[in-house]
Amino acid sequence: MAREMKDHELASPVDLPGEPVERGDPLAWTAVTIIVAALVLLFANAGTLSAWVDEKPVTQAQQQASGLAAGWKDMMAAAGLTAPREALHARWKQLQAARFGDEAPGGTQ
Amino acid sequence: MLFPTLDFGLFFLVAFVLVWAVSASNEWRKILLLVASWVFYGAWDWRFVALLIASAFLNWGSARLIYEARSRSAQKAIVTVGVVANLGILGFFKYYDFFLEQLGALLAGWGMARDLPLMQIVLPVGVSFFTFQGMSYLIDVYRGRLRAASLLDITLLMSFFPHLVAGPIVRGADLLPQFERTPRLNREMVAMGLLLIVWGLFKKAVVASELSVNLVDPVFFDPSAHSSLDLLLAAYGYAVQIYCDFSAYSDMAIGIAALFGYRFPRNFNQPYRAASLQDFWRRWHISLSSWLRDYLYIGLGGNRGGLAMQCRNIMLTMLLGGFWHGAKWTFLIWGGLHGGVQVIETLWRKAGLPGLPRVLAILVTFHVVTLGWIFFRAESFDAAIAFLGGLAGGDWSNGLTTPLLAGLMLLGMGFHFTPPLLAQGIALRLRLLPAPLLGLLVAAAIILIDAMRYEGVAPFIYYQF
Fold first, then answer.
1. How far apart are CA A94 and CA B452, in angstroms?
2. Whose C-alpha in A4, B260, B387, B445 is 20 to 30 A from the C-alpha of B58?
3. Best interface-test mutation with A: which of B264, B291, B447 has the largest number of A CBs within 10 A?
4. Which residue ranges are recorded for the region named Disordered (chain A) (predicted)?
5. Helix residue ranges per DSSP H, B212-355
6. Which residues of chain B register pLDDT less than 50?
7. d(CA B404, CA A98)
8. pLDDT confidence of residue A104
9. What angle do CA B398, B404, B406 make, to 5 degrees?
């Protein structure tokens, strides 16, 4: 229990080496990054929002929110914005279904 | 409220906006972070927020008394009472029923069976983490390494939501000085924080979840129904799963804290490239292993007092470290295995015997660790023995492992053999990007992960500790 640790093993991982970037306000830069990410997710990942609302306990407000989220999801899908996520998901499902050689799917042997 | 969920995402957005909006006042900032932490913790069970507050009061009051005590003997008495009180909280919630069950079995064995008052106590999430944090704070104040902190600071130290339920065990010496001034963001810590969050999300939601649901859980649920090959691959799979699960939590905790301007210490450092068990514990759950080293192993005498005492101290430290994980014999066996092998390593080194070639040493260490994980994961000692017996069953047909699962296992092991500073190198490039482009990249990564994630998110493994 007594080996000397190297600097990169001891420091916080968020302390990066070298000179910091000084331009602009870092908080504004962070805020814009997070806002853009959130907005892109709201548009291109609308199905996740809809699924999240549907998982909530059923109340009148939840029912209204569910309807709105489903409408939003349909609108984004019609605009083609959710297509990349759906295509990736379909490809992932194919990978999940793949088996070595002629092995049967798990649980069916 | 789990990190990889939309509930947490929305909670984080609200907390981020409010906390930075009041950052002109460090006190208000900390109060808001404290309230946010209680909301986060209360999402599991509001009753345990009271326990958290009571625990903070206990440690704040004890530290004040230590600080103001006039004699060293008085300080020692107070720190002892404080540590015992912390252990009392941990012992009651985590070990009360276990010890009573053992007592019941013992009495029954002696023909004196009794109905003992088992309480079916609900374990507060994260109690092992915040009690250890409280104890280290008290001991550091007693040792003169820390000043007694304000009630607000100690309560926030113990409640701060990124580390609250599954670590890292951020010590007062790491975080209290940061609470004394309003933190400032810089692009470096934000870029690395975002990278850690996305990376953690991938490891948890894709690698750990897929391995857990489709390989590890079915095999460990009924080892007798599976072939030797399934058992072997499930053991390897669990080694990858627990790394990807727990290191993911730590990565996300470190990343989330960074977005609020705070620095948490590293908790993992490619543990499966360790060339000995001692090396493994310098790379795995570093905040726990360093805690055990500083407050238990050294407290027991460390390597002072001769070889026999050193071996005893290693063994005791690892046994108690195992028991920290839960009130089960399997955790004690797991700790005993790690302690026993470290004792052998110590004796080997002291005897001046030649070490193994590095590649072989890494392979041997990984397999000892994987053997330990079988006890760690099994529901009982008998289940672990049945699992090990099944490994020798000789049926080498594959029933569960798919190309995807094999690929994820290889990927999870591959993470250990990338350059140690790879993530920092990527973050250094990300910090130079315009904010909209970085936002777009973060969103694209999350969409990619969301498309691959298993439906639903299981709690992190370390939530149960």
1. 11
2. B260
3. B447
4. 1-20
5. 217-221, 228-259, 277-281, 286-292, 307-324, 329-350
6. none
7. 7
8. 61
9. 55
Longest CA span, chain B: 75
- Provide the residue type at B132 as one letter: F
Q: What pLDDT score was predicted for residue A10?
A: 54
Find the distance separating the first CA and the last CA of chain A, reported in whole Å. Answer: 48
Exposed/middle/buried for B134, CB within 10 Å: 0-12, 13-18, 19+? buried
Flag whether A40 is in a domain: no
A20-43, pLDDT tens digit by residue? 888 889 999 999 999 999 999 999
Does any CB of chain A come closer than 8 Å to the CB of residue B278? yes
ipTM value: 0.88
Burial class (CB in 10 A: 0-12, 13-18, 19+), B356: middle
Residue A35 lies in a domain: no
B435 and A CB contact within 8 Å: yes
Q: CB within 8 A of B236, min separation 6: which ones?
A: B370, B409
| Number of domain units in chain A | 1
The per-residue pLDDT of chain A, averaged, comes to 86
Catalytic member of B226, B325, B338, B416: B325
Domain membership of residue A85 as a residue range: 46-97
- Give a yes or no: residue A26 inside a domain: no
Measured between beta carbons, the chain B residues lying within 8 angstroms of A9 are 266, 269, 282
Closest C-alpha among A56, A20, A90 to residue B7: A56
Type of residue at A5: M
B168 prior amide bond cis, ω within 30: yes
Transcribe B380-447 into DSSP letters: SHHHHHHHHHHHTS-----SS--HHHHHHHHHHHHGGGS-TTHHHHHHHHHTTS-HHHHHHHHHHHHH
Please report the pLDDT score of residue A109 as a whole number.
41
Other beta carbons within 10 angstroms of residue B332's beta carbon come to 19
Determine which helix (DSSP H) or strand (DSSP E) holds A38, and give its type and residue range: helix A26-44
Residue A1, domain member (yes or no)? no
Across A87-106, average pLDDT: 84
Half-sphere exposure of B308 toward its Cβ, with a 13 Å CA cutoff?
0
User: Which pLDDT score is estimated for A6?
Assistant: 47
Q: What is the pLDDT of residues A44-67, one digit of tens each?
A: 999 999 999 999 999 999 999 999
Structure tokens belonging to residue B388: 């090990």
In angstroms, the separation between the Cα of residue B162 and the nearest Cα of chain A is 15
Whole-Å CA distances, B403 to B158, B203, B206, B332, B407: 43, 18, 15, 35, 6
H-type alpha helices, chain A: 7-10, 26-44, 46-55, 60-78, 83-97
A101 touches chain B (CB under 8 A): no
The letter for the amino acid at B393 is G
DSSP letter at A79 equals T
Decide: A65 and A55 in contact? Cβ < 8 Å. Answer: no
What does the pLDDT read at residue A7?
47
